[in-house]
Structure formats: C-alpha cells, structure tokens
C-alpha cells in the first residue's frame, strides 16, 4: 500500500478539522438558522 501514509495523514486532518469545527460550529449554525427554519416551517 503506497498510499497508507497519505491516507493516514488525510484522515487525521479530516478528523482534526471535524473536531475543531464540528460540534460548536454545528450548534452555532443551528441556533443561527433556527428563526429562519421556524419562519419557513410555520404554516
């Protein structure tokens, strides 16, 4: 497997990025989008 080190580095980078941006950014985006979603879902 010639690409093992590349794949490992790539996966580590993706994981680190997900850890850095994932939970807080997700919650921030949800809270920011909630009024908009509520507006569109309000029948």
What is the strand tally?
0
Choose one word for the global shape.
Answer: elongated
Global structural class: mainly alpha
Distance between the termini: 56 Å
Count of helical stretches: 1
Largest sheet: none
**What string gives the helices and strands in order?**
H
**What would you report as the Rg, rounded to the nearest angstrom?**
18 Å
Low-confidence stretches: none
Q: Please, what is the average pLDDT?
A: 73
Features:
43 residues, mainly alpha
Question: What does this molecule look like?
Answer:
By secondary structure, the chain is an all-alpha fold. It contains one helix and no strands.
Topology:
Elements: H1 4-41
Task: Give a short summary of the structure.
The chain has 43 residues and is mainly alpha-helical. It has one helix and no strands.
